Amino acid sequence: MDLSLASALKTKKSTIGIVGLGYVGLPLALRFAEEGFPVLGFDIDDSKVQKIKSGTSYIEHISSDHVKRAVSRGLDATTSFADIGKVDAIILCVPTPLNKHREPDLSFVLSTMDSIVPYLRKGQIVSLESTTYPGTTDEELKPRIESRGFRIGEDVFLVFSPEREDPGNPDFSTRTIPKVVGGYSPACLEIGVLLYSGVIDKVVPVSSTRAAEMTKLLENIHRAVNIGLVNEMKIVADKMGIDIHEVIDAAATKPFGFVAYRPGPGIGGHCIPIDPFYLTWKAREYGIHTRFIELAGEINSSMPDYVMAKVTDALNTARKSVRGSKVLVLGISYKKNIDDMRESPSVFLMERLRDVGAEVSYTDPHVPVFPKMREHKFDLSSVALSPEKVASYDCVILATDHDRFDYEMLLKNAKVMIDTRGKFRQTASNLVKA
To answer: Is 82 a residue whose pLDDT tops 90?
Structure first.
């Protein structure tokens, strides 16, 4: 083990490099800065770098005051990977999406590593936090580091430590969420534990990078499968005239053996819609067809179509077609009370409405302007709500149940209200539960 690196980590004199300053990287950078570590953030988006330098937050649930305090304690940011040699720890927090064939897209990880490798030096630790399939750290990062002649576990240390951020959750913070760490070798693991134990209350070491990679996938596949189950249960309950949310509330009174999951118009975020497919893809290399996981993915992916069918039926009842109807979508972030748009089911629903000729608008207090996205494009801004405005739409769809919505006003004035979140428990002539 590199004693100088270990000592620097223990005494908080090591400089921490965070590569990727999004929903995962920025909170982690702030956390290291809080504990007194010098922190240098890296991002290819110069606007993020400039905002950090000016002490301005670009993520809603992170205050600018928090960023300013971190900057005053030594947080800096750059777009230049040539500065990688200045840091002791390199933590990669870059996207790992799926391609159009729903296969792992490691282009962000690999291009980032290729940019970093020329500037690596002895005595550094590289930690990958991006969710990926088991084997990525060993099969992709390790050879790139070794191409410089470095010995893993002696010259440079390599670990995988999956991110566990839950944006907007007030009950858990970067500090209080336990951190899983797996190293390529025992020495790598030891350095990895030292890296994170300085800022995280509980560090959970596992035997290898592959075990750590699989841990992250299990966590989110567990959620994806159970959400798929309750989404399917919702469809069955609806056909039977049963309120699935009443059933879930009743089942949740059981003090053991049941965890309440809620149905919705689909699943969103940076993990749950994507992570299962990382494992199913890798499992095929071993001749395994993960039918259970893939079935849950199919059910969850089909939920926007289920909602569309409800919209069509409701408008037909009102003697209107979807084509030409004015439709307002309430909430377009992937979950309530945040501005995170990644894989939001609301967006897929908006695209389906647009494709069949509906005139689509949205309102979201957390997303004033529809952001630039890799796969989706709408030239829209959030609509200001009023009773008259709500009444002007042929159909209103509650897609994301933000607390800041005036639900009484919305239901009172909507011609047709489609509730995909179980927010309205009452019955009303204009209410359709989806």
So the answer is: yes
